[in-house]
Design a protein that fits this description.
346 residues, alpha/beta, Rossmann fold, 2 domains, six-stranded parallel sheet
């Protein structure tokens, strides 16, 4: 729905540079549209490079009017408060955007089209990313297990640690190496970037694995599919990893982890076990005690964004020593090492 030529503004009020604004950062890194500005009144006057690890001179402005003056024609909600609901204080900005002729990309659970759709003029639209498309899928039956391609699932030690980023980097590296690889998005940011996918956390639990299975079957012509991960088996509030495993019948996995983390980010009482044990957990659950497709973790994608270059290099070596697997920060050093590991894994 999003024409890649349309200039966009990323709305990240009071959150740009934090984990909540991961949609903004994902689009800044991988989106196809020109970004006119980021809107965050607490960071006004800065450039993107001043607030994040992204080397960009895109300005951070305080208001919607400033973003429109810079040419923005689409407002993308680039941040997600806890719970993924649209805060009431945002509505005045959203109404002003529509009144000013802008279209809206909305990654929240609350739909905006039913609320603002009657105010749209011809050529305007609202894209509610978390609305499942098409008919409800059939119940999953491990149909993907009969495919002959490689199905790589990105798994993690926590939420919001870079599973989508690592998956996109891995896919790009595979493609650059001449391999027929496709990235399958399962969250709102991935859908906004690629223009397709499933909003897994908006699909009823009975149909979640079936939705993943249908998506994987639709991509069966590709020799490698990289399935975007969601959540974590370690997180008590996450139920997403299991339907991803069951629906994709993954043949390989890449474990995503943030360097130095020993507890969950927002639940510090939950300890992250040694990575070898986390790897074993994911492999056991994927295989279901031998009943389903066996899948091994082929490599570790390590998020070292908070470390200096020297510290990042040491962290990567430490993870390799600990797990016996290839590791790399795909943003800092590229995903070639991860791609090689996926291709070499039996």
């Amino acid at each position: 729905m999003l024409d890649p030529t349309l200039p966009i503004a990323l709305y990240a009020e009071a959150t740009f540079g934090t984990l909540n604004a991961k949609m903004s950062e994902g689009i800044l890194r991988y989106g196809k549209n020109p970004v006119a500005a980021v809107i965050d009144s607490t960071q006004t006057g800065n450039r993107v490079r001043d607030v994040s690890t992204i080397a960009s001179d895109i300005p951070v402005v305080a208001t919607l009017d400033e973003a429109r003056a810079l040419g923005a024609r689409v407002l993308v909600l680039g941040t997600a408060p806890s719970g993924g609901r649209v805060p009431a204080e945002w509505m005045s900005v959203l109404r002003a955007a529509v009144a000013g002729g802008m279209s809206i990309v909305n990654g929240m659970h609350d739909r905006l089209e039913p609320v603002l759709g009657h105010d749209l003029m011809p050529g305007q639209w609202i894209w509610d990313l978390r609305v499942p498309q098409g008919e409800a899928p059939p119940i999953a039956k491990a149909r993907a297990a009969d495919l002959s391609n490689r199905r790589v699932l990105m798994v993690g030690t926590d939420m919001a640690i870079g599973k989508m980023t690592a998956g996109l980097e891995l896919t790009q590296s595979l493609q650059q190496g001449g391999h027929d690889a496709a990235f399958l998005a399962t969250g709102q940011t991935g859908i906004a970037i690629t223009g397709r996918g499933i909003p897994l956390d908006a699909i009823r639990v009975d149909h979640a694995a079936g939705a993943v299975e249908r998506m994987v079957l639709d991509a069966a012509a590709h020799s490698i599919v990289v399935v975007e991960g969601q959540g974590s088996l370690l997180h008590p509030g996450s139920t997403a990893t299991l339907p991803l495993m069951r629906g994709s019948c993954c043949t390989h996995m890449v474990l995503c982890h943030r360097a130095g983390m020993d507890t969950l980010d927002e639940l510090t009482r939950v300890r992250i076990p040694p990575l070898r044990e986390v790897i074993a957990l994911n492999e056991m659950v994927a295989a279901a005690a031998g009943a389903l497709t066996p899948a091994k973790v082929a490599a570790v994608a390590l998020n070292t964004a908070r470390l200096s270059p020297d510290a990042a290099e040491r962290a990567v070596r430490q993870v390799e020593d600990e797990t016996g697997l290839p590791a790399a920060d795909p943003v800092r050093s590229g995903a070639a090492r991860l791609a090689e590991a996926v291709l070499a894994a039996p």
